[in-house]
Amino acid sequence: MNSLRNDLIISVPGLLLLGFGFLIPVTGILVLGLRDAEGGWTAVHLLRFLTDPFYLGIAWRTVKLSLVITAICIVTGVPLAYIMARGSPRLRLWLIICITLPLMTSVVVRTFGWMVILGRGGVIPDLMNKIGLVNRNYTLMHTETAIVAGMVQVLFPFMVLSILGVVLRIDQRLEEAARVMGCSFLEALRLVILPLAIPGIIAGSLLVFTLSASYFITPSLLGGARLPVLAGSIYESATRTMEWHFAAAQSIILLLGVLVLLIPYARLSRRSHG
Amino acid sequence: MVEAVPSPIRAAAGLYLAAILLFVLGPLIVVCGVSFTAGDYVTFPPQGLSLRWYEAILSSSSYTGAALISLKLAVAVMVGATIIGASAAIVLHRGRLPATSAISALFLAPLVLPTIIFALGLLTFWSATIGQTSLWALWVGHTVVAVPYVIRTTLAVLSTSDKYLEEAARTMGAGPWRAIRHVVVPQAMPGIAAGAFFAFNISFDEAILSLFLRSPEITTLPIQIYTQLEFSPDPSIAAVSTLMIALTILLIFVIDRVLGIQTVAG
Fold first, then answer.
1. Hey, what CATH class is B61-265 in?
2. Domain assignment present for A101
3. B260's torsion region: left (phi>0), alpha (psi -120 to 50) or beta?
4. Model ipTM?
5. In this structure, are A147 and A250 located in the same domain?
6. Quick one: A79 and A161 in the same domain?
7. Which of B5, B7, B9, B20 best tests the A interface by mutation, with the highest count of A CBs <10 A?
8. Most CB atoms closer than 10 Å: which of A148, A174, A252, B119?
9. Distance of alpha carbon A204 from alpha carbon A207, whole angstroms
């Protein structure tokens, strides 16, 4: 078939790039985590991670922070998505631009902003010092609070946009019917909008959770060396201690954790789009 | 008559929006503020106003050198990702190839796979096969990450366009390549252009792949900033960051002009 051949020719450069530049390297790294120095199969690198309390602590911190970040994104994201859905298209456009701006700026730039705000003598410690809560040398840097703040800022749009997509499709007459039947505004939100928005909330949560588990620049700059997370630990093993097998094994663990959540996400979003 | 939205709730919603915007945009505003300081230290609000830190970065070869590398790389990634992404989108839209859904999954996989795993994989693969990482390694990494965005914006336009136009062109005697060049590509142009600007922005701001693949000759702007942040941040970082934020804002407005930011975000 002539047209089939043309389609194939057009897609060849992309397939080559993705094959050699993505598929082989990623497969390679997953295999590397299961290899020993002589090239045989081994689980020793995985076991090293899974039996060392230090690394289990890192895994636990990653999960804990991701849960906190996801929860904050839900609580703050639902009202914003509702306001955006019911506001004018103009307001919606401006809000989308504002919340995606941090996402589009470089991670190092926005993290630097947080360092200025949270560091010693920064905006927030300074304010807390002025109202007498803390002493002059107080800093919020190198705390889990700092990591959470920096991550919520950038992961928040994923939550808002996935809830927005669902809320925009809710028939406004359902809300009106609830009001006519005697619901107050807030009751209508709780009894009509919230239950119907659940698929969006779940999809957004899975996305935010997996993304927050795999970021490492913000946690390593804001949390510092004493608060390592899984992705940061992969970076340390790969570039500082040069233990590539161990870095690869940690990547396998990260990927398994992410896949467990991403598969239901893919199912969910296919259902809501299809 | 019930009030559509009770006024206390209206007021609360206004306050809430203000708080959200402060939280989301605050760090960027602070960075801009710091960049205009006349003082020697990173402080907000700035001490006095001056452009001295902008002069400092423009006369610093480490910043201008890094900016040049980032710019070269971003343009190369934009060209590569646009060509590859747009052709992939056209083929995926037609859906005639066997295993179209598998191909589509492969092209979009970099969106969901944690970038750190891809970065580590590319580093080990490159070292094992080619050796020392170079600008080419970064180009491969950034292009792979940018292609899905071009595919998404192009598909968004193609899915709403009239597919009989191409058939009409073919019936009128245009060859398959001519039909693509004169009918399909112009139809998809808003999507392709928006994708191109996305690709530029992604590469220009990217830090994870650049950190893993870094070597002294390929210090991009984000890496230069990262290194400074780890040691001693001074207001020159704020000046560079402000210029990068300005560029991003410009690109967002351009993308909104050519395609509509809502199409991309939705």
1. mainly alpha
2. yes
3. left
4. 0.91
5. yes
6. yes
7. B20
8. B119
9. 5
CB < 8 Å from A in window 20-79 of B: 20-21, 23-28, 30-31, 34, 42-44
What is the number of residues in chain B?
A: 266
SS3 assignment, position B163: coil
Q: Is the domain of A68 the same as that of A14?
A: no
Neighbours of B119 (CB within 10 A): 26
**Please, which residues 172-191 of chain B have a Cβ atom closer than 8 Å to chain A?**
176-177, 180
Residue A218 lies in a domain: yes
**Side chain identity at residue A238, one-letter code:** A
- Whichever domain contains A133, its CATH number is 1.10.3720.10
Is the pTM here over 0.80, yes or no? Answer: yes
B90 contact residues in A (CB cutoff 8 A): 10
Contacts of A108 in chain B (CB under 8 A): 207, 222, 225-226, 229, 241
Give the residue from A62, A105, A158 with the most B CB atoms within 10 Å of its CB, the best one to mutate. Answer: A105
Enclosing domain of residue A17: 1-32
- pLDDT tens sequence for chain A (274 residues): 467 888 888 889 999 999 999 999 999 999 999 998 888 899 999 999 999 999 999 999 999 999 999 999 999 999 999 999 999 999 999 999 999 999 999 999 999 999 999 988 888 998 898 888 888 888 999 999 999 999 999 999 999 999 999 999 998 899 889 988 888 888 888 998 999 999 999 989 998 999 999 898 999 999 988 899 999 999 999 988 889 999 999 999 999 998 888 787 777 777 665 4
Q: Does A3 map to a domain?
A: yes
CB contacts, 8 Å: B16 with chain A: 79-80, 83
